[in-house]
Design a protein that fits this description.
The protein is an all-alpha fold and 261 residues long. It has 13 helices and no strands.
Length: 261
């Protein structure tokens, strides 16, 4: 009874077993609501599984590999570009430039696609550049906020150890905030999957799960659409878990700091 009350109490802290039980109950409730849904257009779990089997036989696995490889490339390039731009804000010359780039996150890619097409030498480069742009404008914004939020005391401490300004940047901003990089990466890496359908719809020569999803949606095969969407969700969760695992392996001190706080 105490656990039930705690679940609905503000700022309550649950033990791991209680959290697992809560998640299991919520998953069961969602599955029951889905299975007994009164909406005729909502495909049932069995229909989704059958559609997934048919899609897999038609080559869905290869399409997933194509899209996953494209997304990993986009995340890698976005991370490098965004970190370089964010770290460059320690120099006053680059601060207005990065501030302007961060504002581009409000732009739609409709219309901009033409300019990316002119710059790209192949369909793959076009898709990659669109994904990199979509992720980078959000990534650089998050990293700039992380750098701006570094306490002044950390810089002063580094200077009292007689470090030069570039050494201060390396120790305080680059190494000192590397755990935050993984957090910002987790928040923005999902943008690649959200934009995947659009960019693969623009360039269909390489295929990809986005093209399959658009085709199924065009023919109003809702069970297949749900199967693809759930597959993308699963891949996204695996990707998110992998980034979190990398953070725990490379920055174990971050978990210790969180527990103390």
């Amino acid at each position: 009874m105490n656990h039930v009350v705690a679940v609905f109490s503000p700022n309550a802290v649950l033990n791991k077993n209680a959290v697992r039980a809560l998640i299991a109950v919520q998953v069961v409730i969602v599955c029951l609501l889905w299975f007994f849904s009164p909406f005729a257009l909502l495909p049932k779990p069995g229909e989704v599984l059958n559609a997934f089997g048919d899609l897999w036989e038609q080559g869905l696995g290869a399409e997933l590999i194509t899209s996953f490889y494209l997304n990993i490339q986009a995340i890698a390039f976005s991370t490098v570009v965004s970190l370089l731009l964010a770290y460059a804000t320690v120099m006053p010359f680059f601060r207005p430039i990065v501030a302007l780039l961060s504002k581009l996150r409000f732009l739609s890619l409709v219309g901009l696609t033409f300019f990316f097409t002119l710059m790209a030498r192949s369909g793959h480069e076009l898709k990659l550049s669109l994904l990199v742009f979509s992720v980078s404008v959000f990534f650089v914004t998050g990293m700039a906020d992380v750098i701006n939020g570094v306490p002044k005391e950390m810089f002063d401490l580094a200077r009292t150890l007689r470090m030069g300004e570039w050494r201060v940047v390396w120790e305080v901003i680059v190494l000192g905030q590397i755990d935050q990089v993984f957090d910002v990466l987790r928040q923005n890496a999902a943008m690649g999957w959200m934009m995947l359908t659009m960019v693969e719809g623009i360039v269909r020569s390489e295929g990809g799960v986005g093209t399959v999803l658009l085709d199924q949606n065009h023919h109003f095969r809702l069970a297949a659409v749900f199967a693809i969407q759930l597959t993308i969700l699963l891949l996204g969760l695996i990707q998110d878990y992998g980034i979190g695992l990398a953070k725990n392996l490379l920055c174990p001190y971050a978990a210790l700091t969180l527990e103390r706080s």
